[in-house]
Amino acid sequence: MKNLIARTLTGAVYIIVVVGSILLGQFVFFSLFLLVLVFTQNEFYRLSKKGGNNPQVIPGITISVIIYTLLYLTSHCYYQNNTLLALIPLFIIIPIVEIIRNKTNPVQNIALTLLGIIYFAIPFSVFNFILIPYTNHPELYKPELLIGLMVIIWASDSGAYIFGKLLGKHKLIERISPNKTWEGTIGGSIFSILISIVYFHFFNYFNLSQIIIITLLTVIAGTYGDLAESLIKRNFNVKDSGNVLPGHGGLFDRFDSLLFAAPVYFVIIYLILN
Predict the structure, then answer these.
(1) Do 66 and 90 form a contact (C-beta atoms < 8 A)?
(2) Residue 14 sits in which domain range?
(3) pLDDT of amino acid 169
(4) Contact 132, 140 (CB under 8 A)
(5) Bridge partner residues of 181 (DSSP)
(6) What is the reported pLDDT for 241?
(7) Number of domains comprising the chain
(8) 40 class by beta-carbon count within 10 Å (0-12 exposed, 13-18 middle, 19+ buried)
């Protein structure tokens, strides 16, 4: 009971902070999620160390911060897209640092460092593009679109939990996540579609068929994001990625679905709106 109360309160604060940062404007959101990026990526590197590896924490996070910042500026048209070519040489830094520091498991260290950059910097950067989805129109800030992504994932998670508890019998992928069931996944998808139809009804962006396609593909991507994090935690034999959120674990545990869902969601809405 105590854990349930802590989980509920933490969840409520989490939603208020995330939605509040979106509504308060571009810079507030950018600043908050820059911190979220740093803490989440650091959790991943800490998990990697439990497997006897030595990822490059400072270089990896620094490169991610640079990528996140430059992509934020690009979404506001402060830079042209070809400016992003300057990011390519940054990745050469990782093997160079590995050569200099002479740690055990160098190949694994390089791979895990690069994985941490790609896994977190790219999806978190995509959030900024979802907020400004129209090409060459940085003045058109659309917080309702990013909140829509959150609504899809949160509704899917809630529906999956409820239907899984009530009807769950057939395991989805038991070797990775023994608590997930097909019944919960399908129920969560249907529940998310219904909630999305209601939510997007208040905004003139998508028709009914588009809402269903957007929601379904986003939920599928989010489900794989959840499973991917479960695979990582199982590989390193840990239950939670951290303990920063009472009753929920770490930030990686909270954003796992969104890390896979955000790029898929963005591509779909970008193709529809442009």
Answers:
(1) yes
(2) 2-273
(3) 86
(4) yes
(5) 171
(6) 81
(7) 1
(8) buried
Q: Token pair for residue 138? A: 């940085």
Burial of 112 (0-12, 13-18, 19+ CB in 10 A): buried
> Is the pLDDT score of 84 beyond 80?
no
- Asked if residues 191 and 185 have their Cβ atoms less than 8 Å apart, the reply is no
Residue 1 has pLDDT above 60, yes or no: no
- Write down the residue that tokens 């896979």 correspond to: 260
Question: Scanning the structure block, which residue is given the tokens 């190949």?
Answer: 107
Long-range contacts at 132-135 (CB < 8 A, ≥ 24 apart): 132/26, 132/75, 132/76, 133/266, 133/269, 133/270, 133/273, 133/274, 134/273, 134/274, 135/274
pLDDT at 86: 75
Q: What is the model's pLDDT at position 2?
A: 55
> Distance of CA 70 to CAs 23, 78, 91, 107, 231, Å?
22, 9, 15, 28, 31
Residue with tokens 């740690």: 103
What six digits make up the tokens of 66? 């640079």
Please give the Cα distance from 41 to 44 (Å, whole number): 5
Structure tokens at 46: 């800490």
- Distance spanning both ends of the chain, measured CA to CA: 49
pTM of the model: 0.91
Burial status of residue 117 (CB atoms within 10 A of its CB: 0-12, 13-18, 19 or more)? buried
**What CA–CA distance (Å, rounded) separates 65 from 120?**
10
User: What letter represents residue 83's amino acid?
Assistant: T
